[in-house]
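Appendix B. One record, verbatim.
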Amino acid sequence: MKIDALIDSNVLVAIVAEGHEHHRPSLNLLAGATDAHFAITAHSYAEAYNTLTRRGDHAPFRRPTEQAWAALESVRAVTSLVGLTAAQTFAAIRSYATRGGIGPRLYDRLIGEAAVAHAIPTIVTWNVGHMRGLFPDLVVTTPTDFLSGETRAR
């Protein structure tokens, strides 16, 4: 099956977190793009689970573990699961490090590398600038723009 777009972790969180500022347009991506097939990286589920269940002063969602997992499983049921091999992951981290990359943009790098490895032409994200900077040869778009067809790869 041809995969049209890879969904970034921040869109995954927004899809399942009703209180997220981008919840509605992110959820609409899955409901409204009936002719498109989406994938999500395995590590994006880990990142989303962490974000959804985190505790403390700066934890926006604080979902119970069962609720967070059930929400993520519901998205998994309608998307493909992709990832990098251990060697591809290590090579991506090495490349990021040798180019002076620091901090959490590494996760963007891994998502983009998975898109490249699986020949997925488009990444759907709310951090368009970050992802375009790392992967200028891919189509990088928001859920809203993907649905409008303005930036959809053909």
